[in-house]
Automatic annotation (TrEMBL):
CDD domains: LuxR_C_like. Pfam families: GerE. InterPro entries: Sig_transdc_resp-reg_C-effctor, Tscrpt_reg_LuxR_C, WH-like_DNA-bd_sf. The keyword Secreted does not apply. It comes from Fusibacter paucivorans. This is Helix-turn-helix transcriptional regulator. The keyword Cytoplasm does not apply. Residues 189-254 form the HTH luxR-type domain.
């Protein structure tokens, strides 16, 4: 179905954005480069990027302009309110065959409830828009949220613009994953064995299972800061620059990880 978009959309900016993302050739910092460039199309006051695995479990989150504690409280409690009505994935993907990949919310017009009163308003969030990317297997892999605390609400033109660029970003993301470096299972196993300590291998395996750093801390009876230090060491040893790339690499290495734990 051909979509008829209004002529007043920022077509030159959209074109510049698409040319820019086409220059991205690897998974390192992919999401950060995309969301930073998105600001030229759709200004925001703060953002969050969430990485989920094939089971829909949160692997990691990158945020700008918000306290990490709010994110932890969201996933531990608020996302489960009202039968998951405010779940990040539920808001963008209703489970139907036609997946919603872009959605906006005007929180100033929302009826007050526990989520609005205790989570949204204390952070000063007035408007938000979300975008979801799926990998080649159509799993939910990355969710972007752009939030406004001072700027005016998102208009229909903003949503149309995001809807136009979303499939291009998604296709590029899939291409980036498919064209990543191919390493044999034997080499992957040897690399983990050579560079990671026993504890790091254990933590890597738990990350592959979709556990968050806080969950890992509780399971292994480690302080959260110690867990983060181990994860940072894994980053360095496996030559990755963020946990998005780390998770992708560890999922490929999963067999080797579990043989070592």
């Amino acid at each position: 179905m051909v979509m008829n978009y209004p002529q007043q959309l920022p077509w030159m900016k959209i074109n510049d954005f698409l040319l820019y993302i086409e220059s991205l050739s690897d998974s390192k910092n992919f999401s950060m480069q995309v969301i930073q460039k998105l600001h030229t199309l759709i200004p925001y006051d703060r953002f969050s990027v969430f990485y989920v695995d094939s089971n829909g479990k949160l692997n990691d989150a990158t945020i700008m302009g918000a306290d990490e504690g709010w994110i932890e409280r969201y996933f531990d409690y608020y996302s489960k309110l009202e039968q998951g009505n405010y779940s990040l994935l539920e808001k963008l993907n209703d489970g139907s065959s036609s997946k919603i990949k872009v959605k906006s919310r005007d929180w100033t017009e929302s009826k007050p409830n526990e989520f609005i009163t205790d989570f949204i308003r204390p952070q000063g969030i007035k408007h938000s828009v979300g975008m979801m990317l799926h990998d080649v297997n159509d799993y939910s892999c990355i969710v972007f949220t752009l939030e406004r605390t001072k700027l005016s609400k998102y208009h229909a033109s903003d949503i149309d613009t995001l809807s136009i660029v979303q499939p291009h970003i998604e296709n590029l993301y899939r291409k980036v994953l498919e064209n990543g470096p191919k390493i044999s299972k034997k080499d992957k196993y040897a690399k983990l064995r050579d560079v990671l300590t026993k504890r790091e291998v254990e933590i890597a395996g738990l990350l592959c299972d979709g556990m968050t750093p806080r969950m890992i801390s509780g399971k292994l009876y480690l302080s959260l800061s110690t867990t983060y230090k181990h994860i940072a060491n894994i980053h360095t040893k496996l030559d990755v620059s963020n946990r998005q790339e780390l998770i992708l690499k560890l999922i490929e290495m999963k067999d080797g990880i579990y043989q070592q734990s």
